[in-house]
Write a sequence for this structure.
């Protein structure tokens, strides 16, 4: 698992920067119901997407929450007074407080299925009846664009996909949330090159290939043999799913 306090300083630049953030925010906003006024962005990171959510809809009040202290510090610069440090499994907000909740690139990081389920449970708890929860699903699968890099990595040990769409559907249903829509957006600037993939491999990006292990170095050697070492392959496309909490705000 990456250390997100250490990642904060180069997180935006390494993951597509503003173009990727703009695509993500636009896709999330497109799934929010008319009249949404309060949005909680769970695992807001540096706030690069959160800020665009706040700016992308007139009258929308956005609150960000993240566990990594350095991420929170950077997000607070972008959204003064609107960012809280907290664990997504224990959100410090009252029941039915928000019209919408988003979690972009979060559930795949859950250590266990129970943790992913707890995150969804908390997002459902703080969501008002009639509100919508929007989250990314199938993130790891999204990075497979059919490139020569993916062909090399195909034989690596599989990791647990805590954000597999069917699992998230099950977690959501367990807390009364009903599927209401889906969307896709490009991970602009995230197309992998062989050299960048080797660097990611050696810093722990691929959780089933710990840096320094013989297997990791074997994959690094194969990647280093690919042509066009610095040419990015196609960008991934990420998937969002939206779930509605039945009822109306009057029921809260």
């Amino acid at each position: 698992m990456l250390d997100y306090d250490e990642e904060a300083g180069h997180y935006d630049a390494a993951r597509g920067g503003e173009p990727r953030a703009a695509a993500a925010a636009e896709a999330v906003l497109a799934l929010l119901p008319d009249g949404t006024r309060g949005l909680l962005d769970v695992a807001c990171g540096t706030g690069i997407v959160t800020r665009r959510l706040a700016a992308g809809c007139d009258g929308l009040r956005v609150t960000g929450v993240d566990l990594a202290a350095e991420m929170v510090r950077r997000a607070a610069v972008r959204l003064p007074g609107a960012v809280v440090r907290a664990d997504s499994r224990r959100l410090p907000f009252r029941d039915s407080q928000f019209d919408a909740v988003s979690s972009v690139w979060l559930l795949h990081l859950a250590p266990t299925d129970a943790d992913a389920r707890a995150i969804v449970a908390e997002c459902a708890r703080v969501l008002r009846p009639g509100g919508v929860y929007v989250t990314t699903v199938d993130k790891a699968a999204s990075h497979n664009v059919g490139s020569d890099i993916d062909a090399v990595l195909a034989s690596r040990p599989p990791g647990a996909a805590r954000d597999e769409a069917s699992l998230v559907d099950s977690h959501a249903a367990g807390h009364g949330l009903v599927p209401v829509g889906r969307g896709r957006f490009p991970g602009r600037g995230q197309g992998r090159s062989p050299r960048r993939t080797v660097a990611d491999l050696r810093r722990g990006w691929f959780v089933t290939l710990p840096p320094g292990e013989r297997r990791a170095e074997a994959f690094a050697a194969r990647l280093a043999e690919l042509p066009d070492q610095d040419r990015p392959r196609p960008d991934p496309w990420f998937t969002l799913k939206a779930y509605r909490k039945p009822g109306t705000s009057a029921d809260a």
